[in-house]
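We store chain and fold; thus.
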Amino acid sequence: MLSPRADVILKTIIGRYIEHAVPVPSQSLVHEGMLDVSSATVRNEMVRLERDGYIVRPYSSAGSIPTDKGYRYYVESLTAFNLPLEEQQLISHLFHQVERRLDEWLTLTAALIARLVQNVAIVTEPKPAGCKYKHMELVALQDSLALVVLVLHGARVKQRLLFFDKPVAQSELGNIADRMNSIYAGLNGTEIADRNKGLNLLEQQVTDCLVEMIGTEDRRDYSEPYFDGLHFMLNQPEFINNPRVAAMVELVENRSVLKIVLPSGLGSMGVRVVIGKENQVAVAQDYSLVIGRYGLPEEVVGTIGVIGPTRMPYARAISTVSYLSRVLSQLMAELYGSEVKN
């Protein structure tokens, strides 16, 4: 936890850097009357923030910019932030102007997110809720090697090799499979990951494998998503003449970016933020992802989100994704004649 003064200084630096994309010098925080403390105090606090990994200076004489850790602290400290009422009314009006067709809703949603957040918007069609565990078998192939045979609801069968750190007999594998079948039946990957208490080392290794297999299958089910706003992102200062942006542009144009950057275990209907190097894939580590779900839990669920630089207006991105996910969920409820659960 940061001290109240360090908290204010860090959030001020982040706010200014998000707005202006220019490193923030200590003297500007004092001279512009943002903080009622001496310049020496501000410098000392900034030295501590840099030492603790919340900010960094691009070079010795420069001002400071936030790190991924700094942005994470900032995001975790955000309180409820709603879109202005006039924007909510405009969005409602626009949705009433389009036809009652899913593709029209999703196209409009992508365009609105891109314009409101000034970055790349991603929206997928809703699909049946995540894969659910039905049955599993473990077959010994060698002393420390087993074949995992996973049966999902819908008669989908998946297989994977699993290496253990020590020899495991077929009888023990059978016992593990029986236990997994008794406690995981009917659960999705997120629910399985949440029920891993009281497992021994071998059971935990098998559980991790199952969660990964189900997550891979969930991601494979995504159809071609709706994209908008690439031109907004490319106009951000950090991406102008940046050779590393070419890889992300290629992923967006090939409609494959979602399969690359989608975090595993995205099972709830809330909004999730993935910042910079929290992304597992190297090509996405200059970016942040604000992503959530919409639809009818347990029935049909889609993904909605925004990709942009780590210098993203997080409060606005989170509130935009959250609000539009609620709008789409309500439209889906009307379409399916169901009730949206908040």
In short: The chain has a mean pLDDT of 86. Residues 133-220 form a domain with the Enolase-like; domain 1 fold (CATH 3.30.390.60). The chain is about 45% helix and 20% strand. The chain has three domains: 4-77, 85-128+223-336, 133-220.
